[in-house]
């Protein structure tokens, strides 16, 4: 093993750098404009099973 990798501080620094690069990659992926449409679709998934409102529901409303 190379001598500079035997220092625990160097190994921790390299680990920190790898984690930081991974974090930046995830942030860039999440805020990419290419992903906006799929994230919008995923945001509406909880409402996918609900029935769509119809115009005939106006009869049931109170006319006040």
The helix content is 40-55%
Biggest beta-sheet profile: none
- Rg calculated over all Cα atoms: 26 Å
The percentage of residues in β strands lies in: under 5%
String of helices and strands:
HH
Write structural notes for this entry.
By secondary structure, the chain is an all-alpha fold. Helix content is 48%, strand content 0%. It is built from two helices and no strands. The protein has helices at residues 8-30, 36-43. The longest helix is centred in the N-terminal third of the chain and has 23 residues, at 8-30. It starts with 7 loop residues before the first helix and ends in a 21-residue tail after the last helix. Residues 42-64 are annotated as: Disordered. The chain crosses the membrane at residues 12-31. Residues 49-64 have a biased composition (Basic and acidic residues).
């Amino acid at each position: 093993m190379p001598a500079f990798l035997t220092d625990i501080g160097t190994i921790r620094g390299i680990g920190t750098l790898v984690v930081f690069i991974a974090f930046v990659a995830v942030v860039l992926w999440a805020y990419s404009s290419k992903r906006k449409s799929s994230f919008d679709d995923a945001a509406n998934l909880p409402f996918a099973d609900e029935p769509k409102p119809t115009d005939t529901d106006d009869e049931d409303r109170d006319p006040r």
